[in-house]
Input
Amino acid sequence: MNRLTAEQYLAVRKTPLTIVLDNVRSMHNVGSVFRTADAFRSEEILLCGITAGPEHDEVHKTALGAEHTVASRHFDKTIDAVKELHHKGYIVYAVEQAHGSTKPEHVKIDPTKKYAIVLGHEVFGVDQAIVDAADGCIEIPQYGTKHSLNVSVTAGIVIYELSKQLIGTDFAR
Output
């Protein structure tokens, strides 16, 4: 299956994409995001506010070990994480339904830059102050009667699309 060992994973080049979880309450969603971040070699996950960390059994149930390969840190306030990312030169997108948002496949990626996406609370979404602090919004178009997706599903779609644009489909070892 050409899978990396955990040791190999830690040594390989990462996709210049950081995931910020803004008060995500479900530990199962957090674990799922860890697995997706591992699959696409995301740099790091920033766990903010009430978002549980990898030390919780419920996160491990869905992360299946990805919590050991993907770097993570906790911030009490999401805005502090966004400010740090901006200070380090990241382009930060909130993943939220908003006027002027961009479809994931239309985000203009500069391969020389680093990116971060902020995913929000399952009911309330990304906090408005974070949306305002972001460099833009990414919105997944939806054509049915529901206008929301599970946060881990949303993460999968956006991480896949941005990773594809950032490094292509060929991950060099």
In short: The domain at 14-167 is CATH 3.40.1280.10 (Alpha/beta knot). The first strand starts at residue 15 and ends at 22.
